[in-house]
């Protein structure tokens, strides 16, 4: 423990924050597992020199989560709009004209 404290004592504040943040980032991640066909795993192993599969999958999941989240929000907005009462025909046109006349 004393050696570690001495080591940290000599780090600059910035170095310490960067080191601490990288450790916290690793702590906050979780592991998920997925079952894939054996043939696919063999092909991935052959290409692992060229592709960082962990990073590829993380990026895909982040993108997919964002897409689905947007779809859910749109569905919620549609549900709210459907529950709004209908306005009489011509009301919107009337409001637009009033707004234009007041603008100029």
TrEMBL record:
In terms of InterPro entries, this protein maps to: VapB3-like
Query: This chain belongs to which protein, by name?
Result: CopG family transcriptional regulator
UniProt organism field: Ignisphaera cupida
């Amino acid at each position: 423990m004393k050696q570690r404290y001495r080591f940290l004592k000599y780090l600059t504040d910035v170095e310490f924050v960067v080191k601490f943040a990288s450790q916290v980032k690793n702590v906050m991640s979780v592991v998920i597992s997925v079952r894939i066909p054996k043939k696919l795993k063999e092909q991935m192993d052959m290409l692992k020199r060229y592709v960082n599969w962990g990073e590829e999958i993380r990026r895909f999941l982040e993108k997919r989560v964002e897409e689905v989240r947007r779809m859910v929000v749109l569905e919620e907005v549609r549900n709210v709009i459907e529950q709004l009462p209908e306005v009489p025909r011509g009301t919107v046109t009337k409001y637009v004209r009033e707004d234009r006349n007041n603008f100029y």
